[in-house]
Amino acid sequence: MTCRNYKELMMGYLDNELDDEQRKVLEEHLASCSECSKELEQFKQLKRITDEVTLVEPEDRIWEEYWGSIYNRIERGIGWILFSVAAILLIIYAGFKAIEELIRDPAVGIILKAGLLALVAGLAILFVSILRERLYFRKRERYKDVRR
Amino acid sequence: MRSQTNITIDDAALVEQCKSGDSDAMERLILRYQNRVYNAILKICANPHDAAELTQDTFVKVIENIDKFRGRSSFYTWVFRIAVNLTLNYCRRNARLGIRSLDAEKNHHDWQATTLLKQFLTNGRSPDPALVAQNKELCRLAVKALMKLDDDQRAVVVLRDIESMNYAQIADVLDIELGTLKSRLSRARCKLRDVLETMVK
Ligand SMILES: [Zn+2]
Fold first, then answer.
1. Which of the residues A139, B27, B84, B182 has the least number of beta carbons within 10 Å of its own beta carbon?
2. A51 — contact with chain B (CB < 8 Å)?
3. CATH of B1-100, one of 1.10.3210.10, 1.10.1740.10, 3.40.50.300, 3.20.20.220
4. What is the ipTM score, two decimals?
5. Which residues in chain A are closer than 8 Å to B185, comparing Cβ atoms?
């Protein structure tokens, strides 16, 4: 085993995840390798630094109206689905009405008709999805400067 | 006589109560974990506002999916798996859009914090604990160093060193093999050490 391979054992040692045998293997190597024992010391120090990154109690206002907001969002999720389905169906219907005469005209080829219907359906879905996105992102936009 | 009052109901029992439609049980579960979930998310994404939102997203998902929770893993790791997945997706989206957190840009650090850090990194010299305790800047520096890691590496360090999970729990949260976790953690800490060393240079 090369020194590189001992690194994972070192991590396990620091995190208290070694069994007795692994611990023995590592300790034997550390006794004979000053490089690795130096490195272990460094990792111990590193762990003390990451320990400084402690729990930050979030401000209470974060949890204010939290509950209402969680349940609102679940309801809103269902609302959005109903809204989307209904809007897509209505737009498809309106689109179909607009090209109805063309569809009923026997002179127009079947491929063109199918194409037009697909176009109407596609536009309807696209429109609703863009509308959703606009509404959804509007509330986030005021933070965009902060984040950059 | 045994007292009934200080028996803490464990997660599994609360989960069962949730499934039978008890919303108080859900509230207790959320109260039990929301601060820790928020903290882990915040340390991974480094944006307090978005961390709050991601925490909320997490619990919306928990409420929506509690019926599907089979208890194959613990509720604790399940909640964190949802939270970490949402947060890592958020990080990936931000990376794609080229959004970086404000903190990562600033390059000059508090002199005192840098000195403390130097003492930390130099073998054999432990800085005065009182000084460390009052120095919030050191914590900020450490967070900033964390931000230089890859998202996946940062998640591992946060779950291990900040949330204090054991290896089995982290592997469960991230849905990776124990071996993968070990090598990722070792790479993450090596990189973290290098980053901190360049910070004090
Ligand atoms: Zn060695």
1. A139
2. yes
3. 1.10.1740.10
4. 0.77
5. 8, 11, 15
